Amino acid sequence: MRELTKKHPTRYDDERGLGAAMGTNLNVPLPYPITDAIYERELAKALDALVAFDPKYLVVSLGVDIYSDDPLSSFGGISIAGFERIGQLIAGKLEHLPTVVVQEGGYNEEMTGACVSSFFKGLTR
Questions:
Q1: Residue 78, number of CB atoms within 10 A of its CB
Q2: Angle between helices 112-123 and 80-94 (to 10 degrees)
Q3: Exposed (0-12), middle (13-18) or buried (19+): which is 120, by Cβ within 10 Å?
C-alpha cells in the first residue's frame, strides 16, 4: 500500500477500479496546496473524461471543506469565486444531465453557506 503524502494527498491516478468495474473510477491527484487555477484545470480534465464516459445522470458530492479558510482542511484553498467557477465548469460540460448535488464537508460555519451558494450560482447560470 502506498503512503499518502502532501504531494499526493488525494490518492493515485492509476486506481481505475477492479474487475468488472475496471475503468469506471477516475482519481485525480491534486497537489498541495491547491489553488483555484489548479483545481479548475484538473476539474476540466475530469469533466472531459465524464463526457467521454457518457453518463445518464450526474451526482455531485460537494465538499466545501476545500474552502481556503476551512478550519479542518489541510488541502489549501478554494476561494468563494472559485466555487462559482467550479459550478460553471460542471454546467458547461454536463448541463444536459439530470443532476443531484449532495453537500458534505464544510466546517467553517460562517462561510459554508456562501461556498454552497456560490457553487449553485455557477451551476445554474
A1: 26
A2: 30
A3: middle
Q: What are phi and psi of 39, to 5 degrees?
A: -60, -45
**C-alpha dihedral, 29 to 35 to 36 to 42, nearest 10°:** -20
Percentage of the chain modeled with pLDDT above 70: 91
Sign of CA dihedral 38, 116, 12, 56: negative
More confident site: 11 or 21: 21
pTM score of the predicted model:
0.86
Neighbours of 90 (CB within 10 A): 23
Contact 24, 67 (CB under 8 A): no
Which candidate, 76, 83, 82, places its Cα nearest to that of 117? 83
Element (H, E) at 85: helix 80-94
In whole angstroms, give the CA distance from residue 101 to residue 103. Answer: 6
Torsions phi, psi of 95, nearest 5? Answer: -65, -20
